[in-house]
Amino acid sequence: MTNKTDRIIIFDTTLRDGEQCPGATLNIDEKLVIAKQLARLGVDVIEAGFAFASPGDFEAVKKIAQIVGTENGPVVCSLARAIKADIEAAAEALKPAVNARIHTFISTSDIHLEYQLRKSRAEVLAIAQEMVAYAKSFMTDVEFSPMDAARTDPEFLYQVLEAVIAAGATTVNIPDTVGYTTPSEFGAIIKGIIENVPNIDQAIISVHGHNDLGLAVANFLEAVKNGARQLECTINGIGERAGNASLEELVMALHVRRQYFNPYLGRPEESQESLTNIDTRQIYKTSRLVSNLTGMLVQPNKAIVGANAFAHESGIHQDGVLKNKLTYEIMDAQLIGLTDNQIVLGKHSGRNAFRTRLKELGFELSDTELNKAFVRFKEVADKKKEISDWDLEAIVNDEIQQAPDLFRVELVQVSCGSNARPTATVTLRTPEGEELTDAAIGTGPVDAVYKAINRVVNVPNELIEFSVQSVTAGIDAIGEVTIRLRYESKVFSGHAANTDIIVASAQAYVNALNRLYSSLQSQKKPEEVSAQKV
Length: 534
Ligand code: KIV
Ligand code: ZN
Description:
By secondary structure, the chain is of the alpha/beta class. The protein folds into two domains: about 15-295, TIM Barrel (Alpha-Beta Barrel), CATH 3.20.20.70; about 410-520, Double Stranded RNA Binding Domain, CATH 3.30.160. It has helices at about 30-40, 55-65, 85-95, 110-115, 120-135, 155-165, 185-195, 215-225, 245-255, 260, 285-295, 315-325, 350-360, 365-385, 390-400, 445-455, 500-525, 525-534, and strands spanning about 10, 45-50, 75-80, 100-105, 140-145, 170-175, 205-210, 230-235, 345, 385-390, 410-415, 425-430, 435-440, 460-470, 480-485, 490-500. The strands form four sheets. An eight-stranded parallel beta barrel has the order 1-2-3-4-5-6-7-8, surrounded by seven helices. Strands 11-12-13 form a three-stranded antiparallel β-sheet. Strands 14-15-16 form a three-stranded antiparallel β-sheet. Helix 5 runs parallel beside helix 6 and helix 6 packs across helix 7. The termini are far apart. The structure holds 3-methyl-2-oxobutanoic acid and zinc ion. Catalyzes the condensation of the acetyl group of acetyl-CoA with 3-methyl-2-oxobutanoate (2-ketoisovalerate) to form 3-carboxy-3-hydroxy-4-methylpentanoate (2-isopropylmalate).
C-alpha cells in the first residue's frame, strides 16, 4: 500500500476504544451484533478488541473474525501492546479472518517514557521495531501506533516511524491520546511526518484522537488536508473519557463538504464521488444500536444523530424550510437513514409483512429472533394501532439485545397517584427457575418497582442514571428506558422498550442487574459457580 490512496479509510474502534468507557461493556453476542452492523455500514476496518486483555476479549475478536471477517467483509483488527504475548494472542484470535490486521503500540512521548514505561528512547525505538517485525511474521497487514504521538518530540517520532515502516508496518497511526492538540497543530504534525520520514510513502498515515477539548473531529479533518488517509473513530463518538472522534460527524463532514475536501485528495473539486466507503443511510440505525446496547445515550443536540439534529423549532427557520429546505438544512435527514416515520404495520399485519418490512429496514434475523420479535410486535400492536419504522426498530433492538437471561420479569404491578403511597409488587423468575414475589413502597412508582426488584435479587447497587425517551410522538408511543447502575467500581447498563414505561423501567433494571449478576458469577471460582447451580 502507498500513502497515495485517494479515498479515506474508515477504521472503526467502537468495539475497542469505544468499549473502554465506563458502563459500555458489551458481551460477545452484543459485540457481534454491532460488528455485523458496522460491516453493513461499510467501515473498512473493525478494531474488534484487545485479544490479550481477557478471555472474553479474545473470544469476541475470534468470533468477529470468523463471522464478519469474510472475503468481502472488513479487515478485522486486534490491538496488542508491543509485547510478544499480546501479539501472539492477537494473531491467534484473528486466524479465522480473511483480512486481518495486528495493531501494536508503545508510548513515545517523554512523559510516558519517564513515568509510565521507565524506558529510554533507544529502548522504545528498539522494542517498536522488533515487535512490528514480530507481528509481521504472522500477517502482512500491521499497524503501529506511537502512543501520545501528539506530545512526542517530532524528531523522535520521525525516527520511530521510519524504523517501524522499515520493519514492515503498513499503517502508521498518529494518536492524540490525551486530546490536547489543536487542528492547525495536528495538521502540522502530519505535514512534518510526510516531509521528514523518508519511507512514509510505503505506509498509510492514520489518525486517532480523543475529544477532551471537543476538537477531535476538527483535528482529523485538518489531518486529512495534510495527508492522513485513515481515520480511527467510533459510533456516537463513545470512548475513553470525553470519547473518540465521532464516525458519523467525520463521514458526513467529508460527504456534505466533499467539494471542499476533493482537491486535498487529488480529485477534481466538482467530483460527486464519495470520499469514504460508508453507506450513510445506515448511520442512524448504527447509532441507535450502539446507544441501546452500550447504554450510552446520545445527547439531543449531538451533530448528525441527536434527536434535535434535524428539528427546526424557531418560527423563522420553519418558515424558511417550508419554502425551501436548503434555507436552513445542509443535508437531508434521509441521507443518514432517517425515514419519515412511515406508518407501515398494524395489528392485522402478518408474519410475512413483518419479516418483509424488517428486511427492507436492513434487519437480518434468525428464525428464533424473528419469532421472538413477532410475538413482541403483536403485543405492541394490540396496544398501539399504528406501528412505525421507528417502533419496529425499537422492538427488534429490544428483542435481539443479548443481555444474559438470568432473572426474568414475570409481573409488575404498581399503585400510585396524588393521594397514594407509590407501591409496587413484582414477580421475578430466578436463574434457578423459581418464581419470587416481593413488594415495596417508594418515592414514586419506578422507585417502588426498583426497591421491590432489589428485595428479590439482593445485590447491592447504586442507580446512577435513569432515562426515558419516547420512540415516536403520540400518547401511545413506545417508551425506551436506559439505566446505568454502579456496583463497586463497575458500571452496568440496561435498556428496554415498551408502551408501558413502568414495565420498560423494570425490564431495563433487570437487564442491567443480569449483567451485574453474570459478571459476579464469572468472577467466582468454577467450583463456587457450579455449587450454586446445583
Ligand atoms: O488513544 C490512544 O493512544 C490509543 C492507542 C492504543 C492507539 O487508543
Ligand atoms: Zn484511544
